[in-house]
Amino acid sequence: MPSITNTSKRNFLKIAGLGGTALYLGLFSSNSSASVINASEIEGDPQSVELNAWVIIDTSGKVTFVDHRAEMGQGSYHSVPQILAEELEVGLNDINVVFGQGNRKYGNQITGGSSTIRSNYKNFLKLTASAREMLIAAAAAKWAVPHQDCYAELGHVIHRPTGKRAHYGELVVAASKMEVPKDVKLKKRADYKLIGKPIRRIDTKLKTNGSVIFGLDKKLPGMMYAAVERNPRLRGKVKSFDATNALKVPGVTKVFKIKMLVFKTYREGVAVIANSTYAAFQGKKALKVEWDDSGFEHINTADIFKRQEENVKTKEGLSYKKQGDPDKAIATAARKLDVVYQTPYQSHYAMEPLNCTAHYQGDKIEVWGPIQAPDWVQDALSGEFGMPREKILVNMTFLGGGFGRKAFMDYPHEAAVISKELNGPVQVVWSREDDATQGPYRPGITYRCEGAINNGKIEALKFRMSGQNNGHWMGGKKDEANDSTSEGFLAPYFDNIKNISFADVPFEIPIPSMWWRSVYASTNGFAFESFLDELSVEAGKDPLALRREYLDERCHKLIDKLEEVSGWKKRKKNEGYGVAITECFSSTVGHIVKVSRRDGGGVKIDKVWAVMDCGWYVNPDIIRAQVEGSIVMGLGAAAFHEVTFKDGMTEQKNFYSYPMPRINDIPPIEVYVMDNAEDAGGVGEPGLPPLAPALTNAIFDLTGKRIRTLPFSLEAV
């Protein structure tokens, strides 16, 4: 889609593929509105049309949804149309989906925090139901019959007594002149025909027949290709480079120094320009660069965790949440625990390599690529190039995975810088090694967990964490605690445990860190839920029974389901069972993992049961797929790979040193979705955090060995 702001009605219709007249509805404005575009208005009044996100119905009855968020596998490209089709009463396959450009009119466009459905589903339902009622009203007026005698079905309005029909396209002109209903009645969940059903994804066909457009598929006339040799240390500089051999590579045309934005600092590198990606990479290999890495610390992994551990053992840190007096309760308790947990740095390793196509054109910049936050890219490029925001056109393609990495501005900025130097379009492609060694990474974190038990009850909990604060890279205040310090911890615990505190002990190093799937819940959850397991042992209680004591009725139902499907109460000797329950982006997920001893040593994972309570939901098949993927990703981070640093550089360069779980490493997984009337929660990320603690708790149950540092080896347990 083109930029909506400052786009003429004529151009809007042309690019959206609409002709003649259309009913269009804004989805994110505070005041829902409907209007009409017709041919005479277009020709006579080509002024700007400022639109938000839109559902558009043209005179042929075609429905177009302008998707303001990215599709990176999580399924929103399908789920939102499934919602729209329900209340609009059209066929799901009759909705045409196009990506919107970066534009503030859409509101927040960041695809992250599992937010697309949970933040917007009520608006989607209300606006499409309003459109349906307006179309019914138009038909009733046309036929001079009572509104209540008409109903909508499969893109038509039907008069119940006579069977008379009119398709939506015939009604859009009249409907657009109707008043938008202020209090439209929505369907009851029991009456849904599409929502809540495991309908096959509409993007599956596109991805299997090759018609879907990913970033690498973008081609422009006269486009060149670039590969960049970047300083392996974030704050280093280019001292000098020799391009003699690089320029001898057939197809290589130019080599020059560049710098790209990395949060609030810059990374330097040398760009190799060629007439193909292959030639650019070959030229990059032949390039000789000397780096200036003076003036900043060259960190090692062992030093990182040593300093973090000293932090949590010697400093109180910045208080994030506190109730009661946990220090006094712990000091006077008869039974207490004081332990340290550590989680490693992790890379995103999306299967699609980073890439971006840019065309700097003097008075504007246009970019195309796998981008999670097009509005953020607009802001960043506007500031860097001193260009008005509306002159920065950011086009989203499909993403081959993102996990937070593609919500970063460095690679679009880099492409725009190179395009400006070339005065033409360019596509920049990162190798796996580029992606692996440049970051940003999920931060490694150290936790100190203290607790007190009195009379079999948890008297106090005290948590301190020390790790990089992702918010600081974005300009957050450094004298305030990380606002994700308690992420993953279930809210009902605060209601039922008198003494609790969470604190963040600041820690900074020159390694870029960023969100990773489920953000801090992926690390916090390991510490919090492992520690609750330790407290259950100290209290002499069953781990699930202990959690039940401090949780609410909604969580009790989730626990009931976990017990039912896993056979928790019937577990036998020589079987290790572990449980963990975490909250992430308004969804609660519980995992139970079963392990047994492996012939020849170590343990094997026999099965994982997962129960998700995400409240109102759209498609259970998509939920199951996301939870299964989260479990696989969580297993990799727990027992297969980590990012380590030596002399300030990343040691893991590719899959050979950052191994992924293989198909034979994945145990059987059963996923269950709770049904209730609660508001929608996230789906794409909340299934990850419970895996690691449920697994290590199961290993303790089987072997008596408590694992407090990740990753670990299943074979070596």
In short:
By secondary structure, this protein is an alpha+beta fold. The chain contains 19 helices and 28 strands.
Attribute tags:
Aldehyde Oxidoreductase, domain 4, 717 residues, alpha+beta, 3 domains, 7-stranded mixed sheet, disordered N terminus, 19 helices, 28 strands, 5-stranded mixed sheet
Rg on CA atoms, Å: 28 Å
Runs in which pLDDT lies below 50 for 5 or more consecutive residues are 1-18, 28-32, 38-53
Strand coverage percent: 15-25%
Integer average pLDDT: 92
Q: What is the count of distinct domains?
A: 3
- Percent in helix: 25-40%
Distance between the termini: 53 Å
The number of helices is: 19
Please name the CATH architecture of the largest domain: 2-Layer Sandwich
Instruction: Record the strand order, biggest sheet.
Output: 11-12-9-19-16-17-18
Q: What fold name goes in the CATH topology slot of the largest domain?
A: Aldehyde Oxidoreductase, domain 4
Strand segment count: 28
What's the CATH class of the largest domain, please? Alpha Beta
Question: What spatial form do the alpha-carbon principal axes imply?
Answer: globular
Helix/sheet category: alpha+beta
CATH superfamily of the largest domain: Aldehyde oxidase/xanthine dehydrogenase, molybdopterin binding domain
Organism: Flavobacterium zepuense
GO molecular function: oxidoreductase activity
Domain Aldehyde oxidase/xanthine dehydrogenase a/b hammerhead: 209-295
Pfam family, one: MoCoBD_1
